[in-house]
Hints:
InterPro entries: Hexapep, Hexapeptide_acetyltransf, Mac_dom, Trimer_LpxA-like_sf. One of its GO terms (molecular function) is O-acyltransferase activity. Keywords: Transferase. Pfam families: Hexapep (PF00132), Hexapep_2 (PF14602), Mac (PF12464). The protein has helices at 9-14, 24-42, 52-64, and strands at residues 82-83, 88-89, 93-95, 101-103, 108-109, 113-116, 121-123, 128-129, 134-136, 159-161, 166-167, 172-173, 178-179, 184-185, 190-191, 200-202, 207-208. It is an alpha/beta fold. It has a single domain (9-204), classed as UDP N-Acetylglucosamine Acyltransferase, domain 1 (3 Solenoid), CATH 2.160.10.10. The strands form three sheets. The chain has a seven-stranded mixed sheet with strand order 2-5-8-11-14-16-17, with no helix packed on it. The chain has a five-stranded parallel sheet with strand order 1-4-7-10-13, with helices on one face.
Amino acid sequence: xxxxxxxxxxxxxxxxxxxxxxxxxxxxxxxxxxxxxxxxxxxxxxxxxxxxxxxxxxxxxxxxxxxxxxxxxxxxxxxxxxxxxxxxxxxxxxxxxxxxxxxxxxxxxxxxxxxxxxxxxxxxxxxxxxxxxxxxxxxxxxxxxxxxxxxxxxxxxxxxxxxxxxxxxxxxxxxxxxxxxxxxxxxxxxxxxxxxxxxxxxxxxxxxx
Length: 209
């Protein structure tokens, strides 16, 4: 008789299965990511003389997520984010895990963006994300009986933003959405479904032409 193998909430989160966001491991990883994000955000203090290269090192440390190593299984590589060349991220910036972010070349991300990266968030090269944009990879609950505060379960779904995309300020992009290459999302839009490439979307919920 086969004994079912134990799967951590992190493994479930990364595979799109129901997981508990407030498991000890995930709380610890979010706290360690928060520390790396704090160091990056505070590098912009005008009283400090920090070069662009030093800021890039601090941001890369968020995506490298070396705190992952203590939870990695023998023979398995821990997840790790990707950062392309000539990426500019304004502060303050916020993300939860870091290792679920993939950002291509020549991307710019405006101030006060929040990347809630329980699932993978990928942004293609030459794309622009305006100020105060929220990208949330946790699906909205559909069962009222399952609402149990910090004892709840959640499901994460990847968000993909293609190349040469413009996302206006104050937009919200919800879990599972794919935005095609060359799309333009007007400021303040709430994107709840896929947006094809080379089109313009606006509104709540966002519709495209």
